[in-house]
Q: What sequence folds into this?
């Protein structure tokens, strides 16, 4: 290809992609109050689902619910994770402790780390703990 | 009761109970100058027996109550009676109450006094419970002490009778401690009138022990660590020299002194509860006096349950907590300050890291 042709082609590509950007809806650095509201709603929905799981007699197999020992998710300390979990003998993230509770007092099956239920449970716990300073590693 | 005991008749007894092991029951000793009058009683509470299906129940909670019963049977000297402090069932079902009654029937005791808990009540409003255990509130006298048992877990009539389409839903709404659809506990006008009449005939020097399920003081409303008409009940108790309120419901160590009234909680046989101060969004009033129990280790099913015996010498309570896999605690009435105090941990510089609740 001749150099001039190449230069033209490059300019053409730049021009069309720029046009694409300008004609697309606002992206990374631009969002509106409506976006913020929508994202908050999405978050609130997951927290709500988490609360439902927290109080559900169906999360495990024996009818026991998380809320029986942890009203308002108290005594779960999400701000302290990851930390050395002395009973596990290693540094653990909070979802491993949630699974421990599901498997033992609830006599249920462990959830995958990225299971929607696990995400919802963590969202609920963290929401109830809002405002508390992060303290990773604290026992 | 034929005879009132003057508080000077109260003397600390020589024989303090020595019980081996950590028992999830509360041992109560009332010591008198006349050793023939000495007596003790055991206090078991908050078993929360939970039916899974048919004859299957949650094993964890069963084990707590079975153990308490077995160990209460080993107490020497044999307690005069047992108190069961309420929440025998989880959802008030006949099957759960029957299951509990069967486990409790192994108690080698002449008498078990029962207290109504919300988990026993809100399915059929205590009907089946009454059939098994008797009236929902009553008083009795035992060797110079006047005992009153109240049903303190009642609530507003609108909530109880009008709000819920089914009894099952009503029970479920009250069962979750933190449910915003719940309703504050109360003793209510009817029982307070009864209590007033009941206490009129009692000598003001007679020691009074009031037993309720919820604390007859206000700590945290949303979890019902609370009784809505607590002040009105306290007012009825004020004319007496020595009053002790013993309560369950909270599944944790609490103690307090309000005027002449000492408050002491008892442990659950099933599971411990967090202190309300650990709920970051809550405004709560845990008595400043209370040095908390150690944070529970969930990997030990019976951790943060325990037993205590109570020495009621001179009409004041000395509470000895023997805690499963934790350091024992003694909360004794300090006659100088007029308050119950932990004999080791009361001073802030004596607190240990596991007592930090957050």
A:
């Amino acid at each position: 290809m001749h150099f001039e042709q190449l230069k033209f082609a490059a300019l053409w590509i730049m021009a069309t992609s720029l046009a694409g950007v300008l004609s697309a809806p606002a992206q990374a650095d631009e969002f509106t109050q409506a976006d913020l509201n929508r994202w908050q709603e999405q978050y609130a929905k997951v927290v709500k689902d988490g609360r439902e799981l927290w109080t559900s007699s169906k999360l495990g197999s024996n009818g026991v619910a998380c809320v029986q020992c942890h009203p308002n998710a108290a005594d779960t300390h999400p701000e302290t994770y990851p930390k050395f979990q002395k009973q596990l003998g290693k540094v653990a993230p909070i979802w491993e402790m949630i699974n421990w509770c599901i498997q033992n007092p609830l006599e249920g099956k462990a959830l995958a780390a990225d299971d929607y239920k696990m995400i919802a449970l963590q969202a609920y716990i963290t929401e109830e703990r809002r405002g508390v300073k992060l303290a990773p590693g604290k026992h | 009761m034929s005879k009132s005991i003057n508080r000077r008749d109260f003397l600390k007894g020589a024989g303090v109970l020595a019980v081996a092991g950590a028992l999830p029951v509360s041992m109560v000793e009332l010591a008198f100058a006349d050793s023939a009058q000495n007596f003790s009683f055991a206090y078991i509470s908050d078993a929360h027996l939970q039916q899974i299906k048919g004859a299957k129940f949650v094993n964890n909670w069963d084990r707590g109550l079975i153990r308490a019963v077995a160990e209460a049977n080993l107490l020497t000297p044999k307690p005069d009676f047992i108190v069961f402090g309420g929440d025998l069932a989880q959802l008030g079902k006949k099957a759960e109450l029957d299951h509990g009654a069967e486990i409790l029937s192994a108690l080698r005791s002449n008498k078990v006094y029962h207290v109504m808990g919300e988990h026993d009540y809100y399915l059929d409003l205590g009907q089946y419970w009454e059939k098994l255990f008797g009236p929902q509130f009553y008083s009795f006298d035992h060797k110079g002490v006047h005992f009153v048992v109240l049903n303190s877990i009642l609530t507003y009539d609108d909530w109880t009778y009008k709000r819920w389409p089914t009894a099952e839903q009503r029970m479920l709404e009250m069962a979750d401690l933190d449910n915003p659809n719940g309703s504050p506990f109360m003793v209510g006008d009817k029982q307070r009138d009864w209590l007033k009449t009941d206490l009129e005939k009692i000598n003001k020097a007679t020691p009074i022990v009031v037993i309720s399920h919820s604390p007859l003081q206000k700590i945290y409303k949303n979890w019902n660590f609370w009784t809505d008409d607590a002040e009105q009940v306290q007012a009825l108790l004020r004319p007496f020299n020595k009053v002790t309120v013993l309560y369950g419901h909270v599944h944790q160590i609490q103690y307090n002194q309000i005027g002449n009234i000492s408050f002491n909680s008892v442990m659950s046989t099933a599971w411990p509860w967090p202190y309300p101060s650990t709920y970051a969004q809550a405004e709560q009033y845990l008595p400043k006096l209370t040095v908390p129990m150690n944070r529970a280790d969930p990997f030990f099913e019976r951790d943060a349950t325990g037993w205590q015996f109570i020495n009621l010498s001179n009409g004041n309570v000395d509470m000895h907590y023997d805690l499963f896999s934790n350091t024992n605690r003694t909360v004794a009435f300090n006659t100088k300050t007029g308050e119950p105090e932990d004999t080791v941990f009361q001073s802030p510089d004596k607190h240990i890291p596991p007592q930090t609740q957050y």
Remarks:
- Confidence is low (pLDDT under 50) at residues 1-23 of chain B.
- Chain B touches chain A at residues 48, 50-52, 58-60, 176-179, 222-223, 271-274, 276, 278-282, 295-299, 301, 358 (CB under 8 Å).
- Chain B has one domain: 7-14+25-351.
- DSSP finds eight helices and 16 strands in chain B.
